[in-house]
Structures are given as C-alpha cells and as structure tokens.
Specification:
Layout: E1 4-15, E2 42-44, E3 49-51, E4 54-64, H1 65-68, H2 80-89, E5 93-98, H3 128-132, E6 214-215, E7 223-224, H4 237-240, H5 246-251, E8 266-272, E9 281-284, E10 290-295, E11 298-304, E12 318-321, E13 331-337, E14 347-350, E15 355-361, E16 376-380, E17 387-396, H6 418-426, E18 431-435, E19 452-459
Antiparallel strand pairs: 1-4, 1-5, 2-3, 3-4, 6-7, 8-13, 9-12, 9-14, 10-11, 10-13, 15-19, 16-18, 17-19
C-alpha cells in the first residue's frame, strides 16, 4: 500500500459566500452511515474551499505516514481507517492523498528507489512509465474509507504541465588523508541517505551519492578506483539488528557516557520512569540534531530539531509519547542521531492545559458537525480534567482577546446573565456548548450592535 499524506483540519473561521459561477466541482463527500452523518458538498472557487455553501478558512497540520511509522501496514497502531474516524469524532476534517510521495526529509521523498531505473520515466508528472508503475496513487484505486473522487479519468495526483528546472547543486568533494598497508586494502564509505533529494523537479535525472573515488600520492597523478569491485549495503547494522528493541539492545555493546561529544551517526540508549498522573507525556529533544527515536521498541518517528525558524528556534522540539507505549518503570529510550547532539540534556515532560478560551460571533455559521441552528462556544478540557472556574464570560461586544480575564475585557454592551448561563452549562463538566443567541441571555438589549460570546475557563 502506498504511503499517505494526511492533514487533520480544524475549521476556525468562515466568511459568507458570495454567488460565483466559477465554483469548482464536488471533490469530496462524507457518506452517511449508521451515525446519520449527511453528505457534505465540498467545492471551491477562486477564493476558498466551500463546505455546504459557506467559505471556510482551514488551519491545518499534516501527518506524514512513513515519517510517523517505519512500516507500511495498517494493523494495530497503523490503522488508518480508525485514525480517520477518530479525527471525525473530534470534529476535524481529513484531506487524504494516497501515494508514496510526501517529501518529509525522506530519501527520494518516499518514492521507491527502484523507480530511478525505469527507462524514460519522469516523476510526479503525466508520464506513461510513471503512471504504468502506479503514479502518485501507486496503483491503488480503492480503499475501505474513500475520501477522494476522480476527475478527467485520473486519480487525484500531481500531474501537471509545469515541471520546473532540473539544474542541481554542484558536487561536494571530500579530500582526506588515508593510511595504506602493503598488499590489498579495503575502503568503506558511509553516505547518509545516499544524498538523494526529497523534492523538486526532475529528481529522476539527478545524479546523487558517491560518483567517483580516487587516491593520490604526493604530486603523482591520481588513481581512479571507479572500476574496482565495489559492494553496496543499505542501512546500518543497528537497524538490521533492531537494537532499539529489548532483545536487539541486549546484543549490542553500549558505552556509558558522562559528557556529550556531539558525534554524528551514533546510537544512544537510556531508561526512564513514567511521570505520575494522566497528563500527556512529551520528550524534549531541543539538544539534539536530526534522527529517529524509539520507546520500548515502538518508533515514535523522526525528529529534526536542528532545522531552525528564521528566529533561530526549532520548528519542533517536544515530541508526544503515547502513554500506552509506557511501563510504570524502566522504559527504554533509543535514539539514532545523524548529525550530532547532547543526549544528556534530553528531558521527559508532561503537558497540562489549565485554561481554555473561546470567542464566537453571532453571525458565524454553525459547525458542519453540529445539528444546532445557531453558532456556539465550545469549551473542552483535556482528558481527566473538568471545568473548575469561569474566569470571564461576556455576551455583547467584549474586547477581541479576553484571555487576560477581568472586567476590563467588557465592552459597551454586556448581558449581565452571561456568567450565570455559562457556569450553569459548564462547571463540573469536561466539555460544554453554549449557543450564541440573544434568547439564551435574556434577549437583545443592545440592538444594532454585532455581538459575540467570549469565555475564559480554568481546568483542573
């Protein structure tokens, strides 16, 4: 089965739809089932996606399937159908692109290496050899959970007429002193990811990896080793011996360290106890570079902390560890570090959400997953916590951001019953819903003013 690039999308804002004759065709439907979910019409025009007639602004994060799990299967924790259903249950949406290409710092962007050798192939384009071998969907045109449709007789893929330039970077030359012995010598070269690109045009035409090797003594002419007998082996011995598992780890030889040498291409192992409580557990890898890590033999995924934002901060440094991967004591953490880092600075943390905030305008369109006719404020604490206090609540025209609670957030229009209504609906509950409608707050006492409901609550 080809890999999947998934986006879990939370709808947070919408704008009214203006009539448009240029709207695109329907490209996704949620089928009705036992839960009674109605079909959703999803179209688009020049401005936005249109869900059931309303333009929606979608803020999303993506999950790269091969980046998250090293094996291509859909059993156990890899159950894609179960994952999508859980996304739906949480009120989110999924944009699913089935196919191996996802970029994601994966060699060849997750396209299989053997495609490189197919004659006259051009990746990710309307190319017959590429389509013959499956194209973006990789020959799979059906699944147990259909979220895409087809157009123009082709699967939803990246076929297009513009393919860009295939001018690549210049070669990198490594020169290093070596010591030879009398007779036959062996040379071993280690190349991370074989230098293959993970994105861009004409990947199939790029030359990558080791291109030529030569030795030179003094001022004599260099001697090429290109035509000597070379052997090729994919992967590292640690991978082949599964030293990230309990059994494999027991067969490896580990050395205790008391200071970090920031060495590249090195395995690290340690043990830790599970933090007390039910809060989510995270691993702080801000001191590391780039690699992959495992907890009790389970791959948590790849990390790339050395990739910085323009402000100099890592794009991500905290990585979630599902509690069901953990034992009460003696959990084994194994890392494969590619670039160099300081494992002594790694910490195990817990995350706790203690405050929740929501502000919804009365002109907003209700959620597509809601049966209510009016928009609503929705508050929810993390699992195991309840709403213990309403710090601020105002129906009227409160200031735009009321997260710093207090009477100063009140505007010129405020319904005095707001706090009572919100407390009655929310206190002691993990989640609550309050409709944004004048009747809920004793009527419209500020005619002509556009109103919102803003709430700040504490979880404990």
């Amino acid at each position: 089965m080809g890999a999947a690039a998934i986006m879990a999308v939370l709808v947070v804002m919408l704008v009214p739809r203006a009539p448009s004759a240029a709207a695109g065709r329907v490209w996704l439907q949620e089928e009705g089932g036992q839960n009674g979910t109605a079909a959703r019409e999803v179209t688009y025009d020049g401005r936005a996606l249109i869900l059931d007639g309303a333009r929606r602004m979608l803020f999303s994060g993506d999950i790269h399937y091969p980046r998250s799990t090293p094996e291509y299967n859909f059993e156990g924790r890899y159950d894609l159908v179960k994952f999508i259903r859980e996304v739906h249950a949480q009120g989110l949406y999924v944009s699913l692109r089935v196919g191996p290409f996802i970029e994601a710092e994966w060699k060849y962007g997750a396209l299989p290496f053997w495609l490189h050798g197919v004659p006259n192939i051009t990746f990710r384009s309307d190319n017959e050899p590429f389509k013959y071998h499956g194209g973006t969907n990789f020959g799979r045109f059906a699944s147990s959970y259909v979220t895409t449709s087809y157009y123009d007789g082709a699967p939803l893929d990246e076929y297009g007429s513009v393919h860009g330039s295939h001018d690549g970077p210049k070669s990198i030359i490594l020169k290093t002193p070596i010591t030879l012995k009398e007779g036959q010598n062996s040379i071993s070269l280690l190349s991370v990811m074989v230098g293959s690109p993970d994105s861009g045009a004409y990947m199939e035409r790029r030359t990558f990896g080791v291109r030529k090797v030569s030795i030179q003594q003094g001022h004599h002419k260099s001697h090429s080793l290109n035509n000597e007998l070379w052997k090729h082996q994919v992967g590292l011995s640690g991978e082949m011996n599964s030293i990230y598992t309990q059994e494999g780890s027991s067969r490896a030889q580990w050395t205790t360290i008391d200071k970090s040498a920031h060495l590249p291409l090195i395995w690290y192992k340690t043990k830790f106890d599970t933090p007390w409580g039910n809060d989510p557990v995270t691993l702080n890898l801000s001191s590391m570079g780039k690699g992959e890590f495992w907890i009790n033999g389970e791959s948590i995924g790849r990390y790339w902390v050395s990739f910085k934002t323009p402000s100099g901060q890592p794009t991500q440094s905290l990585y979630h560890i599902p509690r069901y991967f953990l034992k009460p004591r003696e959990n084994t953490l194994v890392l494969m570090e590619e670039m160099g880092g300081d494992p002594l600075q790694i910490t195990v943390n817990t995350m706790s959400i203690t405050r929740v905030y929501s502000s919804v305008n009365e002109l907003s369109t209700p959620s597509l997953l809601s049966r209510r006719k009016h928009p609503a404020v929705r508050l929810r604490c993390q699992k195991g916590k309840r709403i213990t206090e309403i710090e601020f609540a105002s129906y009227g025209n409160p200031v735009e951001d009321c997260r710093s609670s207090g009477r100063s957030c009140l505007g010129s229009c405020h319904a005095e019953t707001t706090e009572f209504v919100v407390k009655d609906a929310c206190l002691g509950r993990r989640k609550c819903v309050i409709p944004v409608h004048p009747a809920k707050f004793g009527g419209d006492r500020c005619s002509g003013i556009e109103k919102s409901l803003s709430v700040v609550a504490s979880c404990g």
